[in-house]
Amino acid sequence: MRRAAMVVMAFVLCAAPAWPQTTAQGNKAPAAKPDRSADDEALAKVTQDVVAAVNSHDSKALAATFASDADLRAPDGEMVKGRAAIEKYYATLFSGRLKDVKATTSMVDTRYLGANLAISNGKAEIAGAKGLDGKDLPTYTLLTMVVSVKRNGTWQTLSQRTWPANAVPGPPAPRSKT
Q1: Is 141 domain-assigned?
Q2: How many beta carbons lie within 10 A of that of residue 46, not counting itself?
Q3: Which of the two ends of the chain, N or C, has the fewest CB atoms closer than 10 A to its terminal CB?
Q4: How far apart are CA 20 and CA 38, in angstroms?
């Protein structure tokens, strides 16, 4: 019995070097997570600037948060390309259906895709908007997906997609409680 145990142990010890000794990272220790606190603050500031511009109905200030080559997919499906076109788009809305609008927002999640690229998912509550018929709309929720780029040390919106949270008619789907 003792001899059998020694044979098994010898086999294990001899075979051990042949077993894979690497991790998903190879033999290297995992890379340290970069400090993103300055980027987090800068992106939060962009969000604050967007809300301030919307609430003051300032299309120029709002457009300034976008990169010159940015694009925007509006909740109505319109695709707007370039900072100048985005400014004009919002100027039209702020002089009409959104002239009394107020927004509040909360960023849900930001994920860095590289040193100078991030994607954020957020939610905005919109009050004071008018419908196409000119009547007041109830407060509604918009969901946003924003791709931000850092150029010359400044974060700006490169691409934004916005859609109503209740785009599918009917009651909200039940959520799992995990």
Answers
A1: yes
A2: 19
A3: C
A4: 40
